[in-house]
Amino acid sequence: MWYSRDSTSQGKRIAVRSCCIFAFVAVSVICISVWFESGMSTPTVEFVVPDGYRGRFVLFVDPINGVALRQRDGVVTIDIPVSGVLRIKDDSILARWHTPKARYQDGTPILYEPNGKAKPGEAMLLGAGSSEVDEDGTRIHWNYVGTRADYDQGIGITAVEEECAKQIKEYRDQSE
After folding, report:
1. Strand 139-146 and strand 75-79: pairing?
2. Rounded-to-integer distance, Cα 45 and Cα 98, Å
């Protein structure tokens, strides 16, 4: 006989392993397809700031008086007021992985810093995805529109932080 019993069982083991690998890959592809089709893919969060806006803007969770963030066609558009502070009902969309974008109200796009280098003096979206929980448990998300030099020097931060502190105090006073 030109083959041995050992070579037959080895062939069966290889065939079984191959089938297992194929099944694993097939199930993985199906799961990933279902995940993307179900809307679990990364949403885009587009911040719309007033024309010419430079400085920090802050979003904080106020479940009573905050605005509801809504996703439409995979994009959540957030209109930032002139004050630079926006109360939102829920931050779950910001707490998960998302793709940040920004533009001015007139439609002029604002470059997101990790995606490229801005021209000298050109505003960029910086600090996107930065968040914190303050000592009383309020969840705060902050971003910055301006040049890297402005950001490094803290230009446009103090007034927004003061407004944010004032609004958070109002929110807490209403909650009590």
Report:
1. unpaired
2. 7
Residue 105: count other Cβ atoms within 10 Å of its Cβ.
Answer: 13
Q: Are 62 and 34 in contact (CB under 8 A)?
A: no
8 and 85 belong to one structural domain: no
Residues 171 and 122 reside in one and the same domain? yes
Radius of gyration of the chain (CA): 25
Structure tokens at 100: 């940040």
Residue 7 confidence (pLDDT) above 80: no
Could you tell me the two tokens for 102?
């920004």
Alpha-carbon span 71 to 36, nearest angstrom: 15
Instruction: Note whether 86 and 166 are same-domain residues.
Output: yes
Amino acid at site 144: Y
Same domain, residue pair 57 and 120: yes
Q: How many domains does the chain have?
A: 2
Task: Note the pTM of the prediction, 2 decimals.
Answer: 0.71
Its domain, for residue 81, covers 44-175
